[in-house]
């Protein structure tokens, strides 16, 4: 198949009097454009045009209720919550977020520098240069101190960011909870919201922690991908190789694995939501026993209350077991795709500039080893 494609490219290049590199880049650009138009664009258009109340017809859970879904309604709600936790550019939340971003960027460039040092270490091992090898190892150990500090600082700022988000959202929720006797109406006049205490404590903490965690795990990979793409393109141009196929291959692999994971992914949103509901119910039963301890003791209702409490706990354990079982197979597939398939694609991406290079290694002469290890310099 590869020979057929190469022959086709050569024949087309000869007929049109255009370089093979130009034809290859044009073909890859056409493939990307078609993929974006046929796959990505319809999804974005559907997301934007669908009404806020029924976008994507939120997935239905096994109880017949609308389950969580990433749609326009979700994005609108998230935007409103972000305005609460980050009220302005000069707020405490925004400043911590800025420091966190700077730390993530610093960690990325430290990783690049460490990779360069490791490349030089390998180069001097091959050359059997003991002095420079010892020097590079000293630098490698020395850079480990700021690298570990930055790693700890990332986790520290992420925790503080989550805590700041939680404080702002909790104050906002308390203002609404105690406004117009809402605390009384929720408990006694309206049964739509159960376990309001759980929503004001555990749910807020889980949400703010997830927001801070997602920011860390989205920003840095995007920056890493951008830098790697630019580096591979520069390496390919410097060696006269193809610069477009590598990034295109990486984008296609990410898109395809993302679609696979999305198709086979269990409804973790609905499952976790049900788990949170059962946790809140268990907590509410404990609170009810504490509140009505005198009546329970007077009427001898401890056996009934224990049965109800045990049933609530067993229900929670059953739900957690369902989540664990579904997560086992999903994580196995996710690890295979993201650890091995992505690693294999990365190796191919790195090899493309070298395999398609128009610079002959023999042209390097005495500097052949330098040419091979130039990416580490």
UniProtKB/TrEMBL annotation:
Residues spanning the signal sequence: none
Residues of the ABC transmembrane type-1 domain: 81-354
GO-annotated molecular function: ABC-type transporter activity; ATP binding; long-chain fatty acid transmembrane transporter activity
Keywords of this entry: Membrane, Transmembrane, Transmembrane helix, Transport
Protein name from the UniProt record: ABC transmembrane type-1 domain-containing protein
Top-level taxon: Eukaryota
GO biological process, one term: very long-chain fatty acid catabolic process
């Amino acid at each position: 198949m590869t020979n057929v494609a190469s022959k086709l490219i050569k024949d087309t290049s000869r007929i049109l009097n255009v370089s093979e590199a130009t034809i290859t880049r044009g073909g890859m650009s056409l493939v990307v454009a078609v993929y974006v138009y046929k796959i990505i664009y319809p999804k974005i258009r559907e997301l934007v045009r669908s009404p806020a109340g029924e976008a994507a017809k939120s997935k239905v859970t096994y109880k017949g209720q609308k389950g969580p879904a990433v749609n326009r309604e979700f994005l609108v709600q998230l935007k409103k919550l972000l305005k609460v936790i980050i009220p302005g550019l000069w707020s405490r939340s925004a400043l911590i977020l800025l420091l966190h971003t700077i730390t993530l960027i610093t960690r990325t460039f430290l990783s690049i520098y460490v990779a360069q040092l490791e490349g030089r270490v390998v180069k001097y091992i091959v050359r059997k240069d003991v002095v420079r090898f010892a020097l590079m190892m000293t630098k490698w150990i020395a850079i480990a101190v700021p690298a570990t500090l930055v790693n700890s600082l990332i986790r520290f700022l992420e925790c503080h960011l989550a805590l700041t988000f939680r404080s702002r959202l909790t104050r906002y929720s308390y203002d609404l909870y105690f406004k117009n006797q809402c605390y009384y109406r929720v408990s006694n006049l309206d049964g739509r919201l159960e376990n309001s205490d759980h929503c004001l404590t555990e749910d807020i903490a889980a949400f703010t922690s997830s927001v801070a965690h997602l920011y860390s795990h989205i920003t840095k990979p995007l920056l890493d991908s951008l830098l790697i793409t630019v580096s591979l393109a520069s390496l390919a141009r410097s060696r006269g190789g193809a610069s477009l196929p590598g990034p295109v291959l990486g984008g296609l692999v990410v898109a395809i694995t993302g679609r696979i994971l999305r198709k086979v992914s269990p409804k973790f949103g609905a499952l976790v939501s049900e788990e949170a509901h059962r946790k809140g119910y268990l907590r509410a039963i404990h609170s009810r026993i504490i509140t009505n301890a005198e009546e329970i003791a007077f009427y001898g209702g401890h056996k009934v209350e224990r049965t109800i409490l045990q049933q609530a706990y067993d229900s929670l354990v059953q739900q957690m077991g369902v989540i664990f079982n579904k997560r086992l197979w999903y994580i196995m597939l996710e690890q295979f795709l993201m650890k091995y398939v992505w690693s294999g694609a990365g190796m191919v991406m790195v090899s493309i500039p070298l395999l398609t290079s128009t610079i002959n290694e023999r042209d390097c002469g005495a500097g052949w080893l330098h040419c091979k290890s130039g990416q580490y310099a």
